[in-house]
Write a structure and sequence with these properties.
Largest sheet: 6 strands, antiparallel, barrel
Distance between the termini: 38 Å
Strand order of the largest sheet: 8-9-10-13-12-11
Shape: globular
Structural class: mainly beta
CATH topology of one domain: Thrombin, subunit H
Oligomer: single chain
Radius of gyration: 16 Å
Order of helices and strands: HEEHEEHEEEEEHEEEEH
Number of helices: 5
Helix content: under 10%
Amino acid sequence: MRRRTIRALARPLVLAAAAAAIPLVTPTTAAADGIVVGGFPIDSADSPWTVALASRDRFGGTRSGQFCGAVAVGRTTVLTAAHCLGEDVLGTSPGKVRDLKVVTGRTDLRSADGQEISVRETWVNPAYDGVSNAGDFAVLTLAENLPDKAVIAMAAAGDPAYAAETAATVYGWGDVTGAGDYPYHLRAASVRVLPDALCEQAYPGSADGTYRADSMLCAGERVGGRDACQGDSGGPLVAQGRLIGLVSWGSGCGRPGSPGVYTRVSDVIRKLGWDRPT
């Protein structure tokens, strides 16, 4: 799944595009620390809410313009990582990306399956902190409806899906080796939600970021291996059939003692007021 590098200068899990956008298939210089293991191919029909965030204009058309992951939580509402929409990734503001789209129903990015739906509006969490990586989420509003089956339920605060040691799955089209090896085919990796204490010990505060249990969770394996990587940012972490996390950041990919960190979806729900009666 994710790219096996020290996440691009300890930045979050997306391939930095800088001012001149570079297609994700182009390898970048990175410090690889082993191969991410445990990932497996999966059909988009088995996770229809997993969508690719794409711009052919910015990232080329070889892989449908995919540069981040995203997840559908409503028929016109998609969540992704805030850092995916940063100028250091897009080379400009998201409002100036003329062909920003989500790709749905496409297992193989080389195919014409599924749909490419234009993003009508973007909202990036203004409280996102690029130093600690807290608040790493953004909301995309689509120009067309997704099918009902393409929407996943979100786990609210207190949901048992957040409990430590819960089995979970992360999805994406991200790097599988750390050397810019981006698959065309959607992949998934089986991981476990890890205790907050372990994550706080792994990331007490450094150039990588700071783990904050109120807005983050981490997942992987204690011995390393199964993980997300570069290009998976914004993609879903799912447990017990519900969305619990968005791929966000970490130190390397699949490294022992350095689990992947995810934006906690219950915190997104709270901050957006989606937990209040309408």
